[in-house]
Amino acid sequence: MIDTYSMNRQELETLLASWGQPKFRAAQVYAWQKEGTPVSEMSNLPKALREKLQTEVTDTLPKVEEKYVSAIDGTVKYLFRLYDGECVESVLMKYKHGNTLCISSEVGCPMGCRFCASTLGGKIRNLLPSELLGQIIAANRDSGERVSNIVMMGIGEPLDNYDNVIRFLKLVNDEEGLNIGYRHISLSTCGIVPRILELAKEEFPITLSISLHASNDEKRSAVMPVNNKWNIDALLSACVTYYKTTGRRISFEYTLISGKNDSEADAKELGTLLKNAFRGTGAPIHVNLIRVNEVKETGMKQGTAEEANRFAETLGRYGIVATVRRRLGSDVNAACGQLRRQHRQQENEGEKD
Ligand code: SAH
What we know:
Bound molecules: S-adenosyl-L-homocysteine
Mean pLDDT: 94
């Protein structure tokens, strides 16, 4: 399949040159694509070239299938339909400092975290570079505004789709493309250690987020199967290497699950763990606390805001900056994976009828 949105400028030039087109045509197509313009509307291209693009190229730009706007805070939840009929979610959050888009990295997820809706049906496939980029282009086009920050915290594990994610990062950063600075991009991982080390070598100044969720191996393995392969020690030492190589601070995600990992003792153990791991590195440590979103199938319960605040205060005593995540879009099911899941269930029920 020919997928021009996954190509960099050089590759697009090579493709169009093979069709006998001059170099400047590639620049024209590239400029249209970053706006998500349909080929039929690429008005400065000759008709024959538009026809060739329409017949030869697969249209991999995600299409808005469903869209929900939060009445509370304006957060927009998109369900995007992909070229092969699969769906993924993105969430557009509006802050004073700009628009942030939370994008998906895979259709489904293979990692099996027990609290997470995205992994319930396993992984279907990787998202293409074009589909990673296309979520941003489609959100820009639909909202009429510009996404300025990206978080890779949607459906899927970005480091399980490593090559496509790396290509995407280069594409989205291209100054002739969307030109979003690496410092405006966060990538969240459940902890695929060899890939964290590989990513460190790329030296992109992106922010790495680690989904930690527990303060010892026993508890972490109980909710995150990935911990059986790379335990907390291995993970934190990869984080230290990442920090030393890139100079970029790492933030930790910690989902508070009532009665499982949210006690005072858990907070103290977490404080000690992180403080010891980064001792002597000078790295600032930041923990984002998220009260678990209750997903019916997982049976995990949410604690109170007061409990979360107390947990943050305890971490503070270890010199750790901890913030309790504000919940945006709570009325639009903005927690990832739930919308795609609902949609699939409805489709399946429809098929049975
Ligand atoms: N696979 C990546 C990114 C996707 S998940 C990762 O694991 O980091 C984005 C974040 O949401 C992760 O920290 C994940 O653990 C968390 N998360 C998943 N399900 C959740 C739920 N039900 N409630 C709260 N946070 C959840």
